[in-house]
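Subject: sequence -> structure tokens, single chain

Hey, anyone have a minute? Need the predicted structure for the following. Not urgent.
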Amino acid sequence: MRIEQIMRHDPTRVGPDEPVSRLIEWYATPGGRSRYTYVVDEQGVLLGVVTMLDILTRIMEPELVAAHESGDLADAKALERIGCALAERKNLPVSRFMRTDLPTVAPSGMFLEARLLLRERRITALPVVDADGVLVGEMTRRVLMRLLDTMLRDPELFTLKKDCKHLFDGTGSEVFVG
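Reply:
Had a minute. Here:
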């Protein structure tokens, strides 16, 4: 089965110049289901990825967290430093927070290839890009679990749909590209 048949077709996207404060707001809102936010240019070409952990690490720096955990930094002082870091960085573009080291897969690739990359890299999602580097979807562990669930619940339905372009329908996403 090809990745394009089961991938999410609606990954969360953001433009590289959006302020990180918008992304923090979106992640803090109930229902923000995506852990990965893909940074794309105006043509949809994948530039990088930002996760909640990337933002938290840049705002709540490891040294600050370690000093607090060791008792060398009081709660009030830690909160003050986090507040200062947030104020200093809230208007930075998301491109300053993104990583570019996430592997990608092609829509025509086999889902077992994606499963292997997810396992080897210990990640929960992979961007799916076409030959021009345009983000066209996302392959997640949850999508693979949906595939297994479909196979368990209704093997005949799975057999009938296995040659379809898309096995699962999209469920909507946030797009911040502006």
